[in-house]
Amino acid sequence: MRDSRETFVNHAFVTGYPVKHSRSPLIHGYWLKQFGIEGSYRALEITPEAFPDFMRQLKDETAGFCGGNVTIPHKEAAFRLADRPDDLSAELGAANTLWLEDGEVCATNTDGRGFVANLDERAKGWDRISTAVVLGAGGASRAVIQAIRDRGVKAIHVVNRTPERARELADRFGGAVHAHPMAALAETMSGAGLFVNTTSLGMDGEQAPAIDFSPMAGDAVVTDIVYVPLKTPLLRQAEEQGFRIVDGLGMLLHQAVPGFEKWFGRRPVVDETLRQIIISDM
Ligand code: ATR
């Protein structure tokens, strides 16, 4: 089966609206070249109205698609319209990676796996922590919470400007996940080993609020899922206060690995050359 797939079905895509800003074609283009695979990976701008049709067309063998990525605003629709969403995407209600199996569209969400793989690479031993603080309660926050819970983090404190959204996440995940309003940020940080920013705080034209990271454990890691700029206002502050920081670029690179492997049958590696390719495009 592999042979026929590689011969006839070797086109992958990223679809979003808009999608011009996506760096995924650079990532997958790099790996396709590295492995010498005769495949393609293209950005396809599809409106929300046209997306259901696109999902149907995927199954048309003459289109030659092996699968692709889905980004904003299609992640929820991709999950809903997929024939076989996996458990990870079902818990999040959103998918970012699609592939075809027996003529059916399968879906998963690799954002959380990308997040933890980045920490595994750049903050070895991070998963010995028991408490984490996650700032923000949107889609990205959900993927991060799921992934760190699945790696055994026992208490996850979600802090959000709109407290109801944090509560919604705590209800959704139960047990390990607790909701807090912004005003409680300092106390939730006490003794925590990981701080994750999933918001655009300080990057939307307003000045970032000063955050005192000192209540956290001395060897705590502070990370951001935003990667433009590489050193976000929050990461800058944490570094100045002597904390280990991990930027979000690795999350983007690592979330791409499972998709490439599904579509093209080879497991790619995130290397420094790839990181530099994306940095020079920023
Ligand atoms: P995504 O899917 O990328 O996570 P989102 O669903 O729009 O995006 O969520 C963005 C998150 O950033 C939310 O938690 C949002 O807080 P609200 O729920 O209160 O809207 C948070 N956020 C964005 N700008 C913010 C700001 N200036 N201050 C604090 N939180 C902010």
**Roughly how many Å is the radius of gyration?**
19 Å
Strand order of the largest sheet: 2-1-3-5-6-4
Q: SS-based structural class?
A: alpha/beta
> Cα distance, first to last residue?
39 Å
The CATH class name of the largest domain reads Alpha Beta
How many structural domains does the protein architecture include?
A: 2
The ordered string of helix (H) and strand (E) elements is: HEHEHEHEHEEHEHEHEHEEHEHHH
**In DSSP terms, counting alpha (H) and pi (I) runs of 4 or more, how many helices?**
13
Task: Give the amount of beta strand, in percent.
Answer: 15-25%
Q: Based on CA inertia axes, which overall geometry fits?
A: globular
Query: Which ranges are low-confidence, i.e. pLDDT below 50, for 5 or more consecutive residues?
Result: 1-7
CATH topology of the largest domain: Rossmann fold
Sheet bearing the most strands, described?
6 strands, mixed
User: Based on the structure given, which CATH architecture of the largest domain is correct?
Assistant: 3-Layer(aba) Sandwich
